[in-house]
Amino acid sequence: MPSPQISTLLLTLLLGIGLIFFLRAASKDRTTIVEVHSPRPPLEVLEGLDQWLKQRGWNRHGGDADRCLLEYRGRVESSSALALLLSVLGTVGAGSLGLVIRQVNAGLGWWPLLIASLGPLAGWVYTRRARREEGLQIRLVETEATEGSTLRLQAHRDELIALELALAGPLQLASDGALLSSPI
User: Is this model's pTM higher than 0.90 or not?
Assistant: First the structure.
């Protein structure tokens, strides 16, 4: 049967692994494609989308008239509060690991506590990975003139959710609701 120190060491290492997976998930690319429909004419919907995107800091990056495609680019910044929280959690976790290592092998002295100085590295890694440039594509899907307009949007999942929630009323945009009902 393992000693309590070894069990504590294993649990502390598992917490460290959890932090690593959280860092990976926090900066993961979540680009999604969704189709939205509006009873309004395409020009009115595209102008409304263009204004809303410019208010949110997106810049027009070109497009293709033949393919009925508009492209936008925007800079995504990391959350300072989350970076600070991850730094604190990393420091506390690394300090705990240092204490456990000291308990397992007391001959090391207090040197293992220096592992806590690596804790802020978690916030730095998150900040570097989460800060990036993202794209948003709007493609007009061919529809009959009497059916309104259907658009295929490709962007980060959170941006598509914000777009759908903000423009559901003014532009009468609606999708199949999968983005709003999905837990992830």
Answer: no
